[in-house]
Amino acid sequence: MADPRRSEAALEAFYAALLSDDAEALYERAPCGYLSTTPDGTIVKVNGTFLTWTGWTAEELVGRKHFVDLLTGGGRIYHETHYATTLQMHGTVREVALDIVAPDGRRLPALVNSVLERTDDGEPLVVRTVVFDATDRRAYEHELLLAKQRAEDAEAKAVEVARALQRTLLPPALPTIPGLVLEAAFQPAGEGADLGGDFYDAVPVGDGEWLVVVGDVCGKGPEAAAVSALARHSLWAAAARSEGPCDLLATINTVLLQHHTDRYVTVIALGLRHQDDRWTATVCAGGHPLPLLVRDGAITAIGHYGSVVGLFEDPGYHEESHDLEAGDVLVLYTDGITEGRRDGEQFGDARLEDAVRQHVGRDAPLADAILAEAIDYQGGRSGDDAAVVTLTIDPAIY
Per residue of the chain (398 residues), what is the pLDDT tens digit? Predict the structure, then answer.
């Protein structure tokens, strides 16, 4: 059996010999390049690792080349404007990315650290530089940059596709209705990359009769967009044969229940009838914020709250009719308007009414102005889809 003390002594002797005999070998074969230069950059010493990596010989470098001579054109500019200046001022430069040029023109990506040693009198004495091979790191950074660019391109494409699909869920333009000024404005949530469920439309249902609908599907994403499209298509299919706004909501409710979706919809349906030179509005609400009637500066919410659409077999909707006067304005909106937040506080009903009062009667489109107020309150970016539809009774018809 081997004597443990003899083995330990042999190991100590081995390490002692290694440290004494290989001090120079450690310098020459270190896993990094070493260079020593005079303060003006003339190379006075270089280790074997640096020579192996670059292909230079000691005879070609020592006393013949300056460190800056081994850099690319851009590296030389950086050396003169930043590297050398920082070294003189602070005595050290750390982790500077440079390319070392080999005799055959090949480039070695490198990370460079340098320290400036001074005499006791503070005069520059020698610059000691460590060079690390950054080939793998540079390749990784390049791949990371490419991956980032691909991700950004994919995100931009997703936003473009989402916005294109979102536009298909909204009418390209609202119809022109004699005697009414009908306007709409819409803002998708965030950057518009997520498909939302807000929708609106205006559908003719007879001579002088129209249905105006504003809705909001719970949630976001493709399923919400699909339910939004289903509700809007059901609106067009059922509008002509419906007996009024509540009958229309009941039909949409049945359609959604038959499709067994977990999504429900809040909808406000507004029936408009023009008869004997007067307009009548009939309101039916399915879990949706009630429309605002603006008359002579006073603002009143009209209609009765009813159950959301697509959740219950017998939702129980209720209609309420109002005769409209010249200059009356109706404002329909989704909860992305009132529930938009800043510092945790909602835009709310009071700010909405203030925005309506401020912009009614002005030349600028009313729906756009109301939406802009709500989005500005949130810092220019909506946390949820937001839609506004406004109807103004043209005074010229009375």
Answer: 455 555 676 666 655 655 555 667 778 888 999 999 999 999 999 999 999 999 999 999 999 999 999 999 999 999 999 999 999 999 999 999 999 999 999 999 999 999 999 998 889 999 999 999 998 888 887 888 888 888 877 767 766 666 666 666 677 788 998 889 999 999 887 665 556 678 899 999 888 899 999 988 887 777 777 777 788 778 888 887 888 899 999 998 898 888 877 788 899 999 999 988 889 999 999 999 999 999 998 999 999 999 999 888 888 899 999 999 999 999 999 999 999 999 989 999 999 999 999 999 888 899 999 999 999 999 888 888 899 999 999 876 55
How much is the pTM? 0.62
Query: 15-138 has which fold?
Result: Beta-Lactamase (3.30.450)
Ordered by start, the domain boundaries in the chain are 15-138, 174-397
CATH classification code of 174-397: 3.60.40.10
HEC string of the chain? CCCHHHHHHHHHHHHHHHHHHCHHHHHHCCCCEEEEECCCCEEEEECHHHHHHHCCCHHHHCCCCEHHHHECHHHHHHHHHHHHHHHHHHCEEEEEEEEEECCCCCEEEEEEEEEEEECCCCCEEEEEEEEEECHHHHHHHHHHHHHHHHHHHHHHHHHHHHHHHHHHCCCCCCCCCCCEEEEEEEECCCCCCCCCCEEEEEEEEECCEEEEEEEEECCCCHHHHHHHHHHHHHHHHHHCCCCCHHHHHHHHHHHHHHCCCCCCEEEEEEEEEEECCEEEEEEEEECCCCCEEEECCEEEECCCCCCCECCCCCCCCCEEEEEECCCCEEEEECHHHHCCEECCEECHHHHHHHHHHHHCCCCCCHHHHHHHHHHHHCCCCCCCCEEEEEEEECHHHC
